[in-house]
Protein 1
Amino acid sequence: MHFDYSQQAFALASTLMPGGVNSPVRAFQSVGGTPLFINHAKGDKVTDIDGNTFIDYVCSWGPGILGHAHPQVIQAVQKACVDGLTFGAPTRKESTLAQLVQQCYPAIEKLRLVNSGTEACMSAIRAARGYTHRDYIIKCIGCYHGHSDGLLVKAGSGLLTQAVADSDGVPSGYTKTTLLAPYNDEKAIQQLFETYPNQIAAVIIEPVAANMGVVPPKPGYLQFLRDITKTYDSILIFDEVITGFRLALGGASEYFGITPDMATFGKIVGGGMPLAAYGGKKEIMDVISPVGSVYQAGTLSGNPIATTAGIETLQILMKDPDIYDRIDYKTAQLAQAYKEKGYTVNRVGSLMSVFFTDQEVVDYASAKTSDTQQFAHYFHIMLDHGIYVAPSQFEAMFISDAHDQKDIEKTIQIIQTYL
Ligand code: PMP
């Protein structure tokens, strides 16, 4: 396998963009080597510009639950393009998508469409603060909620591999109202509420953490968060950017049977296009402008092409909910193969991470015990054998409906033979 064209493309890109990429983890910084420059993708495979084809377990970091270039989604998008790319005025498609989200996720009484998970989380927090007239929020160490200033505190994902706990360029004032607790630590949350009674607007949480590798909530943890936020009249926000429409149609909320006050979505909800959403109880969402006094806007928000891709994707999922059993089963098979090799595996549904540590991984501190050099070695073994997993320890492996049994078995064989 050679990567000559990717290397050339990366050399040029590096002169034009920081690190040659438009999002840090893509740069292969923590595993070394040259990022694959993708030419096209179909089903469960991506093909790079050198003509190498890989079974893809990145799935664009989550959106690709149906696999790449699903014919129904592509056809609808092509048709929508002919009618115009953007109007900056309402379309009926926005309401169609909103209704589908509502049907899947009953906690969403009203929502706003935005363009990225970052925007969704930033805006949800602004709404929560505006509604409660409180300033503080709680986030968990190792959870990532996008790159808005106030949330870049002990965030996960690319920030973990680069050992940048906080980002330069964020004035300390922006993060003063962000309180931190270790994931899965009920006492820490309890203490924060006792220290700041009547001051905490919201707790924002990844209901399954997936940006320090996959870390499931301990039994009872999400219920504890539900109860304590209710007690202190604080808002519980589930960041379902990864888990939404992936663990179940109703995301982690349905999967664990916990109803948050607000939720954020990205990735799958846009069917592979730049679209995200935030929403929740009607009375909270009605603080948003022009009804209320909390400002939030977007030129391309609810864009008709992205909205079309989202609608088609959700409709496919809703017509065939057995997808969730299928992707769960395939992921379980892969998890078993890794476990048999002695690796630590965390899995919830079709989200999974393999850790190179003897410890149980329950939070950021235990995730950090994973040997990232060993991860880099593993990553390249997989790549050399035609398997593309996320180029970072602190990301999830995504399994889609397009991963067929033959490719799952091929992956298992490579795990058994080469790891
Ligand atoms: N929340 C979570 C849980 C995420 O995983 C991500 C991105 N991976 C975001 C928010 C931010 O989304 P985006 O990259 O679309 O801004």
Protein 2
Amino acid sequence: MRALRLLNWKSEPELTEVDEPSPGPGEVVVKVGAAGACHSDLHLMHDFTAGAVPWNPPFTLGHENAGWVHTLGAGVTGLEVGQPVAVYGPWGCGTCPRCRLGIDPYCENPAGAPVPGGGGGLGLDGGMAEYELVPDARHLVPLPDGLDPVHAAPLTDAGLTPYHAIRRSWPKLPPGSFAVVIGVGGLGHLGVQLLKATTAARVIAVDTRPDTLRLAQEYGADEVMVSSDGTADEIRRITGGRGADVVLDFVGADPTVRLGAAVARTVGDLTIVGLGGGTLPVSFFGVPYELSIQTTYWGSRPELIEVLDLGARGLVKPKITTFDLADAPRAYQQLSEGTLEGRAVIVP
Ligand code: NAD
Ligand code: ZN
């Protein structure tokens, strides 16, 4: 079968011919219906070197996947061949307290996971291929009626990651509150929708690209702004001088983490999701009192079920552009140039 593989760090992925996987006991092979192209893949290709993460190439890219159950390994029950499923992407050890709660990204026994801190497309073969081997049937979530694999795939990361970040901040987002979304790309365009669907906060969206801000407006962002030197002042003005209750930074570069700290409110949340490598000097008078600053990684399996429900009911809808597997390099090119809106989805 065809597979788009990252063969080395600091290299472009290559479309190669590999053997079709067959499932061992407890494993499932999924016929891939769709695999989203995430900006994290660009970090894998261009920014990472050996030692950055506890695994290495070669592996097939694609960590946000959905499709249909193709073959079941011995002992797998509760799934049927042909059934549409989303693949829960972070694969932990399965037995530590966090994995038992479905919080695989924060697995406490990484040595017991298929690869520490990774999953399909992140150290193991992912979904940018005709078939994906899923090493544990518990990672498959049946798709609710009304959701097809092409729209479900982005929800497994570009949807789940902002959902997790937003959900943990729900208590800080009552009516009257403000949330700032920095970076309205694959994750951010769903972040805006998830804020509107699950909170009563006013949403302020910031990006460098006017086009994607128009998209944010379509999704109900109350204010949009092209980032400039005046952005922090403008957000302060809009929030009545208080600042935003929650800032979600889907870029994570120096200018955005600093903007986040400059516009967050006392007792607010500044959540850094983007892997842009920015740093934030923190000192007593340098940040608002009781501002909580955190990074988040992906989301839990129960949260994926919730996001898929929102997707099936049309409350969040990824804006997608589809590409054939052979065309995946063009999708990454557009993602890298910033000429894509929403998410690129590879349909093998
Ligand atoms: P994307 O390229 O689709 O979107 C990024 C958006 O940020 C674009 O719209 C771009 O115009 C905008 N942007 C870039 N620089 C900006 C700046 N200085 N100010 C304002 N806006 C700016 O990327 P994506 O797939 O949505 O991923 C976003 C980031 O999140 C990446 O760093 C990715 O690696 C990371 N990520 C993290 C997790 C996690 O679990 N923490 C999961 C998935 C992706
Ligand atoms: Zn991702």
Protein 3
Amino acid sequence: MNLLAELRSRFATALESLDGADLSDMVLPSQDPKFGDYQANCAMPLGKRLGRPPREIATELVEKLGVADLCEPPEIAGPGFINLRVKTARIAELVGDALVDEHRLGVPTATEPRNIVLDYSSPNVAKPMHVGHIRSTVIGDALAQVLKFLGHKVITDNHIGDWGTQFGMIVYGYKNFGDDAKLAEAPVGELTRLYRFVNSLVDYHALRTKKIPEAELAIDQQQLAVEKLSSEPVPEDQKAQKKAAKKLRQAEGLLNDCRSDLVALQQKLVDAENDEQLISVAKEHADIGQKVLAETAALHAGDEENVALWKRFLPACLAEMDAIYERLNVSFDHTLGESHYHDQLAETIASLEEQGLVKVSDGAKCVFLEGQDAPFIVQKRDGAFLYATTDLATIKYRVENWQPDALLYVVDHRQSLHFEHLFATTKLWGEKDTRLKDLELEHISFGTVLGEDGKPYKTRSGTAVGLSGLLDEAIQRALAIVSENDDARAEPLLSAEERQTVADRIGIGAIKYADLAHNRTSDYVFSYDKMLAMTGNTAAYMQYSYARVSSIFGKAGVDRQQLRTSNPTIDLNTPAERSLALALLQFSEALTRVASDYRPNHLTSYLFELASKYSSFFSECPVLKAESDELRTSRLALCDLTARTLSRGLELLGIEVVERM
Ligand code: ARG
């Protein structure tokens, strides 16, 4: 049973007669046990709404509220809070139910299962994958698992970028600087080399012909602005004086920013000029930017040679990507990349035009959206389609083939404007199509993974290989920690092989957990030391907690299966036992929270809290040396359910546990 959902539904019934059914969400778990287990704050807003004293409303609500089977008589506190304490006997009974529920541990499935398409990971192949793609992969996978566990139908689709400019780059690179021998020997290495080389050539020319001149111009303009401000007569009035001074300071600040931008660009240019290989060919490839676009356009137009090269290069790129997925233990129902939609783009534009949504501006086809400064460009003036066009075609395809209720995109926050435009356009497009109109479209945005210097985290080489190195390093460090801890034992417990397995799980778990435990919308600093710490809200601590609980069964010599089915009486006479038992029942609430705003950190917080409740229980309540056999069994049952909840919760987050570490 989901206690919170149950209480809310009972409140909804009671609230209905007072016209306040919409307020049932104001029943929440209490922050402090002295206010009971749950607290309802709805009497205050309802009092306001009805123009009656909230305490009076609270009294009326309590009279109407049918919770006698679940709770002690509700108490009214302060201005009209209703405090609810679940009957301890009921908690014990529900723990018994969860105990025998092998797979679901008492978690009910959603009353209204939905059909959800999850778009996540979605890297651009042939281009170095970065930690942001790991974050998308890890968050997306956790959401997929939680939503599935709650009974929703989830279709996962990896919308890889396999059709963009990066292919124009490697095609151009191959034609001009390719090395067939290297390509045969180590395709990914060679493709990465070509990508980087072409990319730096493009960058080099852009710096010289565009970026630096633009930055210089920006300085001139800002300089003028500063001069103008400083030549203005000083106002008489003190307030105005202050205001003018502030304006001048701001303008000077901007000027400084412009100057440091230029310095940074110049530094890049110096670096490029020191690259002999690059400079030796730079002259001959002065129009490389155009040429790369032309190669991409030729690929899109079906040019035989370019299509053949694309087909030749793609498998190696995919294999490289799959190797990372295998290590992360994630898989997708579909991997329909951008190329899959290529021949649906023209009809997408036609369909938008048919509905009168397209306006031509400066030669480009655009959809103008209310309240947005910039339009959503769906076709460039040279006829090229864009990322946006593909995303529109993708929505249509998904709607037609999978009939989803919701489309969720786990993509980093820098793309939020794209998704805002995409969703608004889709709603216009779907004006007459209920499948599109009623579709929930959600950008599951996430923040940047930062390095210790506060700048976006870069792996040493910044390549996909670098990502695999990132996982290696986490595992290596985990192995050192595991070995050190084991060596410190009077008698080491783990074989070399076991140490390695444990280190694999802790290392990968650490990276995943760090991605998940931080509120997804905030940036966080990537730190091996922090994520591998054995204490605090980390994977290692959670895995350790699991192993610690598990170790008790061997010592107790009990058959856990038998323990579950023997229908043991659950005794919750101490506060620590009761509090642990209640926390165990709240697993389903944590999962529901994750599903409600798509934030996996609700689950990590829950598990962390559960582990700490277990700790208090374990230090206050002897298990193996309990006063009676019945009590020992009851406590072992709590241990069993704790272990299973921890491991199920971690499993849903994509993190594996170990029996000992
Ligand atoms: N390939 C894109 C990138 O790496 C992300 C794609 C996200 N999904 C989508 N349907 N737009 O930035």
